[in-house]
Amino acid sequence: MNLEELHKIEVIADKPYPVFLGVPIEDLGEYLHAQLKDVEHILIITHQVVAELYAERLKKGLLDYRVNLLTVPAGESEKSLERLSQLTTAALRCGADRKTLVIALGGGVIGDLAGFFASVFMRGLRFIQVPTTLLAQVDSSIGGKVAVNHPAGKNILGAFHPPLAVWTDFKTLESLPWAEVENGLAESIKHAMSANPDLFEFFEKQEQSIKQRDPLIWSEMVTRSSSVKIGIVSEDEREQGIRALLNLGHSFGHALETEMNYRGVTHGQGVSIGLVAASYLAKIKGLMTSEEVSRVEQLLTNFGLPTKIARKGLDPKILLQHMQTDKKNQGGRKILILPKGIGQAVISKECTDPEILNAWEQVI
Ligand SMILES: NC(=O)c1ccc[n+]([C@@H]2O[C@H](COP(=O)([O-])OP(=O)(O)OC[C@H]3O[C@@H](n4cnc5c(N)ncnc54)[C@H](O)[C@@H]3O)[C@@H](O)[C@H]2O)c1
Is any atom of ligand 1 closer than 6 Å to the C-beta of 183? Predict the structure, then answer.
């Protein structure tokens, strides 16, 4: 393996780090040997199903290290303080110390949980992200945000703890169930809507190849989509400005997920409906034309993502109330991210409650 020849993009940050794209999982060990001379012990944190699929391949490259594998049950509920405490006990039993390297092998739940564990264990361990879901490859593994949930809310306990590197093997996506692919597609389409009109067109043109999981098209999709995230976090690592644009659709989506108790709507579906609601609001504010809103709806529909939700007792006024507690709000004022045409987004403090209610009415 020639490190110089690998496809990588550097994240410009306080501590810059590379995102390697399209690299075999078994080559990570060789990279670690070349980069880190003081590591002897590695903790791989993953899910059982991911361990069964990929841990042996990863471990093949780690023969010179003492390696322990810690598995965590699947599900968002595992991003908890209880699980963090159990990981801590298990890590101590394995003899982890301040030089231990953590490898987060999995989707966004593992990346957030293992990353947060790495940020606090003995005041901070180094860690590597090995994302294996589409969402993690294009979004959550990049940018250094790590967190666990609290009964009071999602990602309430978190940190900025950037990885030493992100090691992305596109082939791991071959085993990903389509329902999980949809979550990643919703975030990728959000990247395109907020910052890259060409990527939006790519999704429109390559619909069939994406659905047929054409490997070349998928490589291009992950590369282009993760590049959007890399570009944005490189400009604004700590979310003081433009990184907030990546929340497009999320104020609406989170309100829906909260109201439905995270049941009956996946994160990707919430984001998809949120993107449509934000587009209607943008139309009300004169930022989008009816044709552009239709393009957004059509693209999401093409990928099987919902653009509306059946009413079933959903009350727009209650959804509006959920938006009151959004982390972005300032001084009681709702701060919303709105699309401006296709491929650009803006931060808006000017949306009134009747306008937001009107947007909700369009999608319920
Ligand atoms: N830190 C950030 O910047 C950031 C950004 C976006 C989302 N997130 C977080 O990401 C999480 C969601 O992540 P997700 O969508 O990846 O879900 P996930 O991590 O729960 O993974 C989804 C499921 O896919 C399985 N899986 C993973 N890789 C697989 C593979 N290659 N083949 C087969 N099955 C596989 C997992 O075991 C799991 O059951 C949320 O907790 C969210 O808050 C974080």
Answer: yes
Query: Topology of 3-175 in CATH?
Result: Rossmann fold (3.40.50)
Contact present, 186 and 296 (Cβ < 8 Å): no
Cβ neighbours of residue 301 closer than 8 Å, sequence gap 6 or more:
307
Structure tokens at 111: 């990346």
Task: Dump pLDDT digits (tens) for 157-169.
Answer: 999 999 999 999 9
- The residues that are catalytic are 123, 145, 187, 229, 239, 243, 247, 250, 254, 267
Assigned architecture for domain 180-363: Up-down Bundle (1.20)
Relative to the CA of 175, which ligand 1 atom is closest?
Answer: 32
Per-residue pLDDT tens for 61-107? 999 999 999 999 999 999 999 999 999 999 999 999 999 999 999 99
Quickly list DSSP for 222-241.
HHHHHHHHHHHHHH-TT-SS
Count other C-beta atoms under 10 Å from residue 21's C-beta.
21
> Where in the chain are the domains?
3-175, 180-363
